[in-house]
Structures are given as C-alpha cells and as structure tokens.
Amino acid sequence: MSKLTVATATMYDLSLAAAEEASRLGEQSGDIDHLLLALTISEQVAGQVLRSLGVDLEHTRAAVEQQHAEQLASLGVRAAAPGPGRITFHERGDFEWNDRALDVLRRAAKGRKRGDAAAVLRELIAEGSGLVEAILQRLETTPQQVRELLDQAERYPSPPSGTFDGRSLSGSGAAHVTAPVATVWALVSDPARMPEWDLGFGRVSDLPGEVVAGSVWTAHAIETAPDGKPQRVRPDRRRARVTLVELEPMVAIEWTTTWPDAMTSNTRRTRIELEPAAGGTHLRIRQAWERTGSRRGIPPLRWVMRPLYTFAIWLQISQLGASIGRAFR
C-alpha cells in the first residue's frame, strides 16, 4: 500500500475509534488520550504491541480516568465526573481532533514516516505534555518499552490486501475485538443478531430453524437512522437474501448477500475468521463483490478507477470490523 493510502486508512480507523470513545463521555473533541485508547484496539502492529504490554482497552480506560481525576484533584476540583455511557458517535456523528492530537497525527506522516499506527504511536509517546507517559506508568510500562517492542514487531508488517479482476473485486483486512472468541462467535453466527453489527440492516426475517451451511434468511435495509432521520433506500435494495456458505464453529463463517429485487446487482461474499488474541479476539475479514453472469464485462473506465474501488472495499471491511468491535465496547 502507498504511504498516502496507509496514512488515510490509519487516520480513518483511529478517528472512528477515538470518536466512539469520546462519545461514551458525551465529548465531541478528541485529545491524545482518546488517540491512545484508539490505538489499543488497532489491529496494526501498534495495537498488538500495546496489548502485549497489558495496555488494552479496559485497563487503559481505567488509567485515563484515574489520571484525569488526579489532575483535577491537584487543582482542588473533586467533583465526581459523569460515568461513561454507551457509544453514541454513530448516532450523532460530531467529532474533531484538538490541536495537540492533530499535531501528533501530522508528524506521524511527515517526511519519510509512513503515517501508519506505529508511526502515530511513536509520535504519541514522544508528545511533550507528559499525559501519555503518565497513563503508561499507571499501566506499568514506559515509552521506552513501547519503542523497543515496536522496533522488534515492525520487522514483520502485514498490511491489508486487495485484488481487482474482470469478475470480482475483493479485499482482506483484520480487526481486534475486546471480547473472547466464544462471545464474538455467538454474535456473528446468529442471523437474528445481524442488525447489531451490520449497520446496513435494521431487521431480519424468515429465520432458519437450524443454522447450517445452506441456511437462508432475509435481511431488511435500515430505513430510519439512530438519530431518527429517514434513510434513502432504493426500492430494489430494501431486502436482501443472505445465504450461509460455510460454518466452522468458533473458527470461521462465510455467507453471500444478494438483492432479489435487483436482478443485475453483484453478489457480496463475506468471510470472517476468528482466533484468540491478547485482550480479546483477532478477526480476519475478507469481502468480495462478484459480478453476476448477466452483467456485461468491466468497461475500461472501471479499470482506470480500480484504485478507488480497492480503497472502497477496504473501507467496507474496516467498517465491518469496527461495527463488530463496537458491540462489545
């Protein structure tokens, strides 16, 4: 992946996770502590390094809260802060980084730096306010330990991939979920729970009596957003047919999605593989859009646009991983 693609993808992932964490406290501005929280659930090398040091989401949330309480107490402020609530960012959508967080993100992509999560983490632990260092100390680690482990881990990067040919567009990526495999499996393998993590669907019907390979059910597009605003949905996209292709308990699930009222629409194929990881579950996600036999060949313009298509499918994979992770945060 190019530097621009890596930096853009990283900015998107970290901004989304940070915005969700900020929204738990009713905040709409992101600071460097929100950036650290976002990095703890990143599936890039930086997130893996942090979790291996015990800097996971749950413990970092507690350390951030303790650090802020101590700072307020030093100023003579002892009023109890409001407790965290649920994530509401996807309902409101209002978020912006403050200046010092933006400065960290900009420096991570400056010059020869790649702008990936590891570069962001390096700039974050070098940030001069001392806030992140103090939080890490509460988590019994130091910026130096983080740097040393990053140096080792970055020798083996594994960026997401994407392919584009005349018949399909596909891509793969990874996500970290802060819940054990069994809990995550219970979510993604239950057709009735699909609306909990696929934000494109508001309800399901025609549920199978037994969930096995070959099972089919109907998913209905969400027509009202969480904030109450009506969603524009094409009539031929209001219902989808979901067919389970493979089911290997606790290991992998794969299904296809078609739109029976849009006869020439492409088929979406999704596969999720699960494995235990420090602090939760590692997801490997693959998605492909497969051209139907009734559609014409790929026109030359689409070949020219393939970098944009590849980025678009990466974005879909990233959103899917984030939505599954959000269900447990």
TrEMBL record:
<dbReference type="InterPro" id="IPR023393">
    <property type="entry name" value="START-like_dom_sf"/>
</dbReference>
<dbReference type="InterPro" id="IPR036628">
    <property type="entry name" value="Clp_N_dom_sf"/>
</dbReference>
<protein>
    <submittedName>
        <fullName>SRPBCC family protein</fullName>
    </submittedName>
</protein>
<dbReference type="InterPro" id="IPR004176">
    <property type="entry name" value="Clp_R_N"/>
</dbReference>
<feature type="domain" description="Clp R">
    <location>
        <begin position="17"/>
        <end position="71"/>
    </location>
</feature>
<dbReference type="InterPro" id="IPR019587">
    <property type="entry name" value="Polyketide_cyclase/dehydratase"/>
</dbReference>
<dbReference type="Pfam" id="PF02861">
    <property type="entry name" value="Clp_N"/>
</dbReference>
<dbReference type="Pfam" id="PF10604">
    <property type="entry name" value="Polyketide_cyc2"/>
</dbReference>
